[in-house]
Amino acid sequence: MTATDLPPGCGDQEITKAVILIGGPQKGTRFRPLSLDVPKPLFPVAGVPLIQHLIEACVQVPSVKEILILGYFASDEITPFIGEIRPLYPTVRIRYLQEYTRLDTAGGIYHFRDQIKAGNPSSFIIINGDVGGDFPLQEMLEFQSNLKASGKTPLLTILATEATRQQSVNYGCIVENKETHAVTHYVEKPETFVSATINCGVYVCSLDIFPIISKIYATRQQLFYEGKIEENGETWESIALERDIIMPLTAEGNLYVYHSNRMWSQVKTAGSAIYANRQYLAMYRRRQPDRLAGCNKGKGDTTPRILGDVYIHPSAQVHPSCLIGPNVSIGKNVTIGPGVRIRESIVLGDTVIQDHTLIRYTIVGWNSYIGKWSRVEGTPCDPNPNKPFAKMENVPLFHEDGKLNPSITILGCHVRVPSEVVVLNSIVLPYKELSRSFSNEIIL
Length: 444
Fold this sequence. Notes:
2 domains; 7-stranded mixed beta sheet; Mannose-1-phosphate guanyltransferase alpha-A; Nucleotide-diphossugar_trans; GMPPB_C
């Protein structure tokens, strides 16, 4: 890409690239059955695809002029979405670059290094596609810029937050020099407690990282052709930013930490999508209140009663006698009948919910149907409010004894729930028509 390819007005000014890593179809298993219908990055949270929230975070940074989305989803799964949203962000160029195989976090960056370096950006942002939050990207860029101005040579700045001592072992743990904020030790998912400071999967990188990845690439290539690396389902070209770069380079003194106490969460399970939905709706209230259904108050009896933060797509038809909220998102062309009560849930597009139904802690898939006087309810799996810095647990689907862990209820796409049926703490796969009530089951 040449300077003439860049958006107008950024030919001479300092620019920043943004890279969003979305992985591919072999992942997202904990997000099933929802990821069976749509790539996980395109799953709607608070009425907007998860990846669009990340794009909007990048667009807020004035120096970002291009956003590159890297992954190995088929191009025809991602590029139509990009075509739809491009007009919303005219000052930023957005492209999808498809990997030929799973290259991991640093492998994909190295493979597309020419596209990242094009236009001579001063630095570039990396965001893992399975996180959500209120990212202080501009502050991170200024932090790294100040380090350079003071004579330091920062290679990488890691966004970090605090977790509980017990939960920290599920994340990348960072030990830092409290005075300089330099990383002195890093362990990815340690077996024992290392630090309550955890990696958020958001980085600001210097272009100097590419020669380092190049050396790792050359070494792995040589070892592979000498027969010293077996692929075992993972290509030798797969290079992990955390394992292969951050962990070995902590002794160099050019990795730094930027702390944030803003909202942040991984979005790895359906339960975490409900939690992220709540957090993004709260962000709308602070920054984009026009997205919330609450802005329709005062229109008489033509709108339902709204509690708390609620998103309702303009095409949805919700009966005025309904009580919706808090923390509910209702998608395109949804029809909701009289007397329906919905809270802490996501209702996806083209769904029909009949009269006097109760829905709590549930994700209702696309094109589903729920009959009259039914009850669909899950178990909340939020962070413990009594523990400071507690994060989502992202528990496995089953206990060690094989029993289903209590969690939110999920109805896959094209599921039909008849009238006067109760569905509790269950997962219903797509295209199922229920004939009775279910509790704590997976309906195949």
